[in-house]
Structures are given as C-alpha cells and as structure tokens.
C-alpha cells in the first residue's frame, strides 16, 4: 500500500505550486467577478441598493423574467419527459439522429437563436406579413422572448433524463404493466420516481438559463422599457445609461440565483452519485442471489 | 402496426403519442426555424453572399473572434488542467467549494459576467488599475475579449478533464514508477497520452462556446468596428439596421463552423474511445 501511495503522489513542492495556481486562477477568474457584482451594487450603501428595486421598470423586468421561465421550463419539462420515454423505453430506427437533433440548440450561438425567430416571425419574415394581417405580434413582444428562451433551454431537461432512463432498463415498467397497471400509472409510479433527482437537476439548470438568457432574448425583444425588458436586458440598459449601482443591483439578484443554482446542483450531484451507488449495490446483491 | 414498422414491438404503451408530440415540438421550436435561416441564405445571390462574408469589417470580426477564442481555449487548456489535477488528486481546505465554483460561468447570466469583468478590468477597476501603469489595456481591447472568452470556457475544460484524471489506471503509474521512471517521465509517457483526448475535447468545446459568445463579451470589448467587434455583435448590428441578408450570411458562417467543430469533437471522441478500447482489450 505504501509503495502505491508513493508511486501516485507528486513531490510536496509541486503539490504546493499546483494548489496555489489553482486557488489564484479560480480566485482571479471566478471569485473576483462575483465579488465585484455585490460590491458595486452596494457601493452607495444599502439604501441606494434597495431603492433600485423601487423603479417600476425594474419590477416589470423581474416579472417578465419570472413569466418567461414559468412558461419555458414546464414546456421543456413536458417535452423532456416525452422524448426520454420514447427514446429510452423503445427501440426504433434513427434514435441517435433524434438525440443529436435534441442537442442541436447547444451548438447554436444565442444571437443566431434569436435571429432565426426574427427571420420567421419578423415584419420581413416568412410568416411575418400573415401575422401582421391578423394583428399578432411575436417579435419585439413577449411571445418572441418566450420562444427564444424555449429554444436556448430546449435540451437541458431531456439530456439529463435520456441517458439515465436508458441506463435503467425497462424491467420495472414491464413488471408494472404485467401486474395490470395502465401506461400512465406505470409512468407516474415507476418511471418518474426512478428519475426524480435527475429531473430536478435538469429543471434547475433549465431555469437558471431561462432566467439569465441574454443574447437570444436581446435580438427578439426590441428593448421596450417596462414591456419587453427581462432582467438581463434591464441590466444592460441601466449599465449603458451609466446607472451602475442600479445595474449591479439587478445583476446581484441574478448572481444570487446563480449561487442558489450552484448549491442545488452540488447537493443533487451527490444524491445522483449515491443513487448510482445504491443501484450498483442492488445489482451486486442480485448477482449474489444467483 | 405496419405504419410503425421502424420500431421493435413492445408491451409498453405510449410510443406513438410521446414520439409524435416530441418530434412535433422539436420541429416547431428548433428544426423549422433553423431551416428558415438556410432558406433565407438561398434567397441571397452567390455573389452577394461572398461580398457580405468577405467584407473587411466581417473579416476583422472573424479574426478577433477566432483569435480571442483560441487564446481563451489555450489558457483554459493549461490552467484548466492544473485546476482539474489539483481538484482530483489533492486534498486541501476549500477544495469542495472550489470544485462547485468551477460551474459559475455556466450559472452566472452572461450579462452579469460581462459587466462584472468590465468593472474589474476597466482602467479604474481593481485589476485594470494595476495594469494601466504598464500601458497594458485590457478592457475595450482584444485582450479584454480574450479574458471574457477564457471566463466562459473554463468549466468545459475542467469538467471534461476531471473524469479522465479520475479514470487513470493506478496500476500503470505504479508500474512506471517500479520500472524506474521519474515522476515527470511517468507524466509525459503514461498520464499525458491518456488524458490527451479529454484535453482536446475540452479545448474544442471551450473554443466552440467562445465563438458564439455574446453577453459576456460585448461590455468588455468596447465594440469598435474593425478593432474590437466580435462576429455575434456584427450580426446584431446588421439586424438593427434591418439588413437581414447581411445578418443571415454572417450567421451561416458562424453556424457552419460551430457544427463542423462539434462534429469533429464527436468523431475524435469516438475514434479515441475505439483506440483506447482496443489497446486495453
């Protein structure tokens, strides 16, 4: 055992150097920017900080961000569940192509995601004239913001669920069906409990991105204060008006959201890992029983 | 069941419903809008398309975007390896917090990282102030763009390297040491070849992400055409002038490069996993 440890351990000086570089690099690139957000927001005191949220435009930006996430996350959740059920529980041709297509929005830059909706629904877009004739406005309005957000957060939940459900085979579901459960009962009582932590993990990441999306939403929003401004867009407007305290105050709320997301992510990751270990333990027991 | 012959039969219900709705939703949200982009390109004449994408301002934006993304990914490949190695191999106080914090650039909205980095690196900011006396301009220069792209690419490199370092076979390092290899030789000849695929993948992912980045860059870059204007911003600038053809042409260039990059990443991974699988067997 001792030789083992010596063979895999680095000299003490190297260890010290690498740990110092790690702390310095992460401190410089991660902690300093995060700290800056809160320090700049509180630069003129707590009073000025909270006064930033009394502004009606800031409030409507917060509400629009909450509304957008409240539509985009459930929409992608329902899609994620349906796609993973079809992909993980059945064998069919073209499965890998479907998985690749679901991941596609990750490969599209946010600005381009916004652009494709402008080309589709904008005044000069493919169906823009028809929409205009029927007095439906999507671009430079709330529906466009929601659509762009749905696009950029599209794969988050599905890509957490698909690999996990593929790993867990269909034995449990077959048992439930053969015992007389309906398809819906099987899904609710058997499949869903098996993937609940991965589901929550996907929802948290999806929500963080939905509330924080900037590029795609910026292209379709039109930046109308109080109407089509989400929180990240409002940060930009305030910043460009040199209203730094208010900009960083709104930004600090988004930074808090990011911190909560990171904590939830870390907690869930340990749960997911222990879940995997539990599964492995069960599998080992089954092997022993044979 | 003839219609569903592409699927193997199963006693589980709901395939038609879930598959149908999932494909419908995928088409409406992703596939149809994206194909609209390529259809729009088809309405531009060949000559006009090249005139747009090879315009000096567009070329300057590619140079900046690709150059800064390359610098960012290279910095991340080196420091990301040190970070990943320390987090996996060493135990020190604060390790778990640092490990969780690596994902911050994913979780922090890009506009927030953008204004925070600008405040830090502006000539009157904490870091900008230290560098200004030496004539080093970070914010509002190409260097600022590279800093922002380093920030957003960091998690990709660290998170792809960590599992690779964890999976290193202890026996091989022991064998190398027993056979008289120095720690450095072991690293160069045993460890390095095994983590190289992960390092390349992480590098390419950070690079691809940086190419399309917008929010965290536009505040620190200063956005001067020909000097500090990234391609994403050029797309937005063209859109704001209602130049849809121009915006689309630049977007297609960026999109095709990202797709090719991701395809290469997947192929490399597949090739390396096959090669490693064989050499182990």
- For the secondary structure, the number of strands of chain A is 0
CATH hierarchy class name of chain B: Mainly Alpha
Q: Biggest sheet of chain A, in brief?
A: none
Major sheet characteristics of chain B = none
> What is the global morphology of chain A?
globular
Number of domains of chain B: 1
Which strand-content bin applies to the residues of chain B?
under 5%
Total of DSSP H or I helical runs spanning 4+ residues of chain B: 13
Q: Could you name the ranges of chain A where pLDDT drops below 50 across 5 or more consecutive residues?
A: none
**Whole-number radius of gyration of chain A?**
24 Å
What structural class do helix, strand and pairing data of chain B support? Answer: mainly alpha
User: Helicity level of chain B, as a percent range?
Assistant: over 70%
CATH second-level architecture of chain B: Orthogonal Bundle
What is the CA-CA span between the terminal residues of chain A? Answer: 33 Å
Provide the CATH topology of chain B: MetI-like fold
Write up this protein.
The complex is a heterodimer of chains A (290) and B (281). In chain A, 80% of the residues lie in helices and 0% in strands. The mean pLDDT of chain A is 90. Chain A has 290 residues and is mainly α. Chain B has one domain: MetI-like fold, CATH 1.10.3720. Chain B is built from 13 helices and no strands. Chain B has helices at residues 15-42, 46-53, 56-89, 95-101, 104-107, 110-121, 126-131, 142-166, 170-178, 183-212, 215-221, 231-240, 244-280. The two termini of chain B are 42 Å apart. The model of chain B has no long low-confidence stretch (mean pLDDT 91). Classes of the chains: A mainly alpha (290), B mainly alpha (281). Chains A and B meet through helix 1, helix 2, helix 4, helix 5 and helix 6 of A and helix 1, helix 3, helix 4, helix 5 and helix 6 of B.
């Amino acid at each position: 055992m001792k030789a083992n440890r010596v063979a895999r351990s680095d000299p003490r000086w190297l260890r010290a150097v690498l740990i110092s570089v790690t702390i310095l690099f992460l401190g410089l690139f991660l902690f300093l920017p995060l700290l800056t957000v809160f320090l700049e927001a509180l630069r003129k005191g707590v009073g000025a900080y909270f006064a930033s949220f009394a502004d009606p435009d800031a409030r409507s930006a917060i509400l629009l961000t909450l509304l957008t996430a409240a539509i985009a996350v459930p929409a992608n959740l329902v899609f994620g569940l349906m796609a993973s059920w079809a992909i993980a529980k059945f064998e069919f041709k073209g499965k890998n192509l479907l998985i690749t297509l679901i991941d596609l929005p990750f490969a599209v830059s946010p600005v381009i995601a916004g652009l494709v909706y402008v080309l589709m629904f904008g005044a000069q877009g493919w169906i823009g004239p028809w929409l205009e004739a029927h007095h439906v406005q999507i671009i430079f309005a709330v529906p466009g913001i929601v659509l762009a957000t749905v696009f950029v957060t599209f794969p988050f939940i599905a890509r957490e669920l698909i690999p996990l459900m593929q790993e867990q085979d269909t034995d449990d579901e077959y048992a439930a069906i053969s015992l007389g459960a309906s398809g819906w009962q099987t899904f609710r009582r058997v499949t869903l409990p098996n993937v609940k932590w991965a589901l929550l993990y996907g929802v948290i990441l999806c929500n963080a991105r939905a509330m924080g999306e900037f590029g795609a939403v910026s292209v379709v929003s039109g930046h109308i204060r109080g109407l089509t401004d989400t929180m990240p867009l409002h940060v930009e407007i305030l910043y460009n008006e040199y209203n730094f305290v208010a900009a960083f105050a709104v930004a600090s709320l988004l930074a808090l959201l990011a911190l909560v997301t990171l904590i939830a992510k870390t907690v869930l990751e340990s749960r997911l890992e222990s879940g995997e270990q539990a599964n492995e333990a069960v599998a080992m027991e089954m092997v022993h029983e044979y | 069941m003839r219609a569903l012959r592409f699927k193997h039969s199963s006693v589980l219900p709901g395939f038609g419903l879930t598959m149908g709705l999932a494909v419908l939703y995928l088409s409406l949200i992703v596939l149809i809008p994206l194909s609209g982009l390529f259809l729009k390109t088809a309405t531009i004449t060949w000559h006009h398309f090249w005139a747009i994408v090879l315009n000096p301002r567009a070329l300057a934006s590619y140079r900046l975007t690709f150059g800064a993304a390359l610098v960012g990914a290279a910095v991340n490949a080196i420091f990301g390896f040190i970070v990943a190695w320390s987090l996996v191999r060493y135990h020190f106080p604060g390790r778990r917090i640092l490990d969780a914090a690596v994902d911050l650039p994913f979780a922090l909205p890009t506009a927030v990282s953008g204004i925070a980095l600008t405040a830090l690196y502006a000539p009157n900011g904490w870091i900008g102030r230290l560098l200004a006396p030496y004539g080093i301009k970070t914010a509002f220069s190409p260097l600022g763009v590279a800093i922002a792209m380093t920030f957003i690419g960091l998690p990709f490199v660290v998170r792809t390297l960590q599992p690779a370092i964890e999976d290193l076979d202890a026996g091989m390092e022991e064998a190398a040491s027993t056979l008289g290899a120095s720690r450095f030789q072991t690293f160069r000849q045993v460890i390095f070849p095994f983590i190289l695929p992960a390092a390349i993948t992480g590098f390419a992912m950070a690079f691809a992400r940086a190419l399309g980045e917008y929010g965290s860059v536009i505040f620190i870059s200063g956005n001067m055409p020909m000097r500090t204007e990234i391609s994403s911003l050029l797309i937005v600038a063209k859109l704001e002038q209602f130049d849809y053809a121009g915006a689309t042409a630049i977007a297609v260039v960026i999109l095709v490069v990202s797709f090719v990059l991701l395809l290469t990443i997947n192929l490399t991974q597949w090739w390396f996993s096959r090669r490693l699988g064989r050499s182990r067997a």
